[in-house]
Amino acid sequence: MAKIFNINLKSSAIATPARRVAQPSAEFYSIFSQEELLDIIHTLEFRREIPLKYSYKGTGAQNWDKFYLKYIRPRWYRNSNPEILLLRDNFALINSHLAKSRQLTIIDVGVGNSYSIKEFIHRLNQMGKVKRYIALDISKELLELSQRNFINWFPDIRFSSCTIDIENCSLSKILLKNQDNLEADDTAKIIFHLGVTMGNHHNRIGVLKNLRNSLGKNDLLVFTNEIGSNSQWDGRARGGFKYHVDKVYAWLKKHIGIDSEDCQLLRKYDNLTDSIVANIKLCHDYAINFSLSAIEQQIEIYTGEEITIWRQHKYEIPELRQEIEQAGLELVHYSTDRYFANIMVICKVASCNSPDTYSIADS
Question: Does the predicted TM-score (pTM) go above 0.85?
Answer without folding.
Answer: yes
